[in-house]
Amino acid sequence: MEEFFEALRSLEQEASDIVSTSSVQARQRVEVARERFAEEFHELEENCRQELERELERLSQEWEQRRQEELESYSKQLSKLGTELDQRAGYLAKELLESFLGE
Question: The pTM is what?
Answer without folding.
Answer: 0.55
